[in-house]
């Protein structure tokens, strides 16, 4: 059956539809960004007066917001380290190993992405509470690692699948050991994937709420928990400034991943994160 060539009206219609959809999706973000610069204390849109007072309050040294941001950053950093260690190890075994029950193991390591987060949070609470670790940044970071590791594994599996194994075989034929091959061949080529895995692991931890809510105490509240409390018990316009900063960080993180992906693709002559099913 012969396909008809697209018409000018069709191009215009698709462009208008795509623009309308993008504007609809971006509208809540625009409202938050504009409201965050409002001077009133009730967060009205559009603001009658504009001010940066809520950003100043958010960044005030020793304040609740600054303390929560520092705590969330610490927990997210620990989560990133744990996720990379576990993710790289598991991805290497799944992508290059000959594991028995390969599909079952693959499904098991990705199970946290399918199980409701509140269920995982309850299980972690029952695990850490008898050990007296509630409120510990380490306990929260370990809990966040449960959610971040599957993301790191998916990224690293795709990255390792995109590396030509003949390069590793050539190095082995020249007498290089496994550690030398990993240090000189595999990991340098997998650097874009490692950066992407680190970025997404950090974001997963920084934005996570349920596990932090179950494992935190009044003295250790992460940023999402503090935002939830501010919205539940009061109307604090500082939340809009915090939300605007989180949006900016997410955009910067995605831009970084896209830049690394593009540079790595030019360097390797292929896509950094190829979408390829695990076999």
TrEMBL record:
Protein's name in the database: ABC transporter permease
Membrane topology per record: Multi-pass membrane protein
CDD domains: TM_PBP2
Record bears the keyword Ligase: no
Compartment(s): Cell inner membrane; Cell membrane
Ranges for domain ABC transmembrane type-1: 69-258
Transmembrane intervals: 21-45, 65-91, 103-128, 134-157, 185-206, 239-260
Stored Pfam families: BPD_transp_1
Keywords, sorted A to Z: Cell inner membrane, Cell membrane, Membrane, Transmembrane, Transmembrane helix, Transport
Superkingdom, natural source: Bacteria
Coiled-coil positions: none
Family: Belongs to the binding-protein-dependent transport system permease family.
Primary location class: membrane
């Amino acid at each position: 059956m012969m396909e008809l060539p697209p018409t000018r009206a069709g191009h215009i219609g698709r462009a208008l539809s795509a623009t309308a959809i993008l504007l609809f999706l971006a509208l809540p973000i625009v409202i938050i960004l504009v409201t965050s610069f409002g001077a009133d204390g009730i967060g009205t849109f559009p603001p009658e007066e504009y001010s940066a007072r809520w950003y100043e309050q958010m960044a005030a040294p020793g304040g609740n917001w600054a303390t929560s941001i520092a705590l969330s950053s610490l927990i997210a950093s620990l989560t990133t380290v744990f996720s990379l260690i576990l993710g790289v190890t598991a991805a290497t075994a799944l992508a290059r190993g000959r594991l028995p029950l390969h599909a079952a193991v693959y499904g098991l390591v990705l199970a946290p992405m399918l199980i409701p987060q509140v269920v995982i949070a309850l299980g972690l609470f029952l695990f850490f509470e008898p050990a007296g670790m509630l409120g510990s940044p380490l306990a929260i970071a370990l809990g966040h690692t449960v959610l971040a590791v599957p993301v790191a594994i998916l990224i690293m599996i795709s990255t390792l699948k995109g590396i030509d194994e003949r390069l590793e075989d050539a190095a082995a034929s020249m007498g290089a050991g496994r550690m030398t091959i990993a240090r000189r061949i595999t990991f340098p080529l997998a650097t874009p994937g490692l950066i992407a895995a680190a970025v997404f692991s950090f974001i997963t931890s920084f934005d996570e709420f349920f596990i932090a809510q179950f494992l935190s105490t009044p003295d250790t509240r992460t940023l999402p928990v503090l935002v939830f409390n501010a919205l539940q018990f009061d109307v604090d316009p500082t939340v809009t400034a915090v939300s605007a900063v989180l949006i900016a960080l997410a955009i910067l993180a995605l831009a970084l991943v896209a830049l690394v992906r593009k540079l790595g693709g030019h360097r390797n002559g292929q896509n950094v994160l190829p979408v390829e099913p695990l076999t």
